[in-house]
């Protein structure tokens, strides 16, 4: 009784705290005293409180472009607001970040994209913090009212040294006052161009004359590359248009919103104070070295009889191109200094090309491009970030009989990107994970008898659904990089008729020297090389991750993720071991009894696929059978999948029976009618191959409610008890 009363008291207290609304200014929200900042603390006094305030919007609401799988629609909108004092022009502690998502929900704020720079608003928001950045979140769908329209704030000129030092460490005492403001930095030089998220995104490090560094980041559409497809339906453009400048580019000024990604004395590993430009007018180039765009080779997968023509557009903002060269090598042991140099021919306008002669089957060719302008500025492409252990290069492998998975996955130089991004390839491998029930929910294939670079995840066509573990499949599709994870967007699937259960590659989860990129998408077994136990040595590393290693309580470990399956988390829902009860029914419904992680748990080994997301490699077990010799009892996996042995396409092997699905299209109410009792299970997959619904023990006529599924095209697979697919059909949910 006392415990219940205590809980009730706490709940009431929390409700009262959240119900209290303070009327404040933005300055009140953001101000932190010098003594507090000196003590390495920058939190708002109003953090976790609801406030009522007025402010002037600094940037249009439709210009942010932050992809988020946890927000309905996939876009997490942002804008910035300044205090009404000082004529709404901002100033110390007068700017703040606002996220356009209703507090406590995954729903974007309605009409957020219609807010314009210069609008004066009255709003009621929760004050929160993320990685040192104070953020306001509307508490309801009517929490923001436009009072009037006016002039957008002008940028405030600030020093880079007030924000960060020469190691890009945030300077709280002088920088915190500018968080959330629209500012301008002057006379800076690009010292690093950082492509990330599979090469689809870019940030810049720029340095002032004193060596102080700030990152120019891409929260807004202004710095999205043309490879970026916008997720905000109200965005003024369907793609980005930013062209990354070469290292050495000098800017007269760069403007944008100051965002805080804390590091330094806080112990976090963020990027310090960042500058996020909001439009193309926020950049003014002063001096620029040559720039490369539209780099391509005429043959993506050359044979031993093919010369390869490499072409590029080369421009110079403030002058002309004096020379352009292609440098290549067919010897993987050659340093850049030993590459053969070929002059590039100016074919027309800004277009240049050069030819690499044919090479023997199996040869890997590496190459770079180099150009010099009339001011003696030289650019080497692809860019190599400062302090990179190896230079970045382009590469291809000569193959007379088509590519292997290793060819697609293996990287050369300092980049972790596939050499075949955007190209159609055909590869063959044995299935190590499936889209079936009681499995990880995605199809992985692996090249036999290889220990590195041999696995890849395959998405796209619903034909993947029928594959079972151990089947050999030939898959054709487009190579993509999804936030650093190489994958094939499959268009066709064919069985070879061969069968082989691939053994996992043994790795040490506490090793600090493993090059994990080599194991991406491969089936591995995390084991203690000394023959001892594997421990859970970090029970909760955030966002569903926990760590396993060979010492109890150690910090050298491998991340593990299970129990989360969404557009950004591709782990299994059939693994009991999760960090938090929150993930029982968030980011997918856990299909087995949960067991929360703790540092007393041990195992003999953990098997799984190596996955890369959000800058970390993770081991993702397929089901409970992959946790070997666990110290607690887990649900049986119950995985059954009978492979079809014999060549042919997946579609050719589907058996049509007298099963009717109607209506189609529907609003989510689907009726299944069968003339026999053979149909035991129905599974629904989206067009990425993800299992979104499963139901067993169907009646001959039964209506299922799929209205919770987002509108789109889906594939339905109906099966017997022995997992034999008796019908597949596309359905449309409106």
Nutshell version of this structure?
The chain has five domains: 23-148, OB fold (Dihydrolipoamide Acetyltransferase, E2P); 156-287, Beta Barrel (OB fold (Dihydrolipoamide Acetyltransferase, E2P)); 297-376 and 387-397, Immunoglobulins (Immunoglobulin-like), CATH 2.60.40; 403-647, Beta Barrel (OB fold (Dihydrolipoamide Acetyltransferase, E2P)), CATH 2.40.50; 654-733, Macroglobulin (MG2) domain (Immunoglobulin-like, Sandwich).
Q: Domain count, please report it.
A: 5
What's the CATH topology name of the largest domain?
Answer: OB fold (Dihydrolipoamide Acetyltransferase, E2P)
Number of helices in the DSSP assignment: 7
CATH superfamily of the largest domain: Nucleic acid-binding proteins
If classified by CATH, what would the architecture of the largest domain be? Beta Barrel
- Low-pLDDT stretches are 1-18, 652-657
Strand content: 35-45%
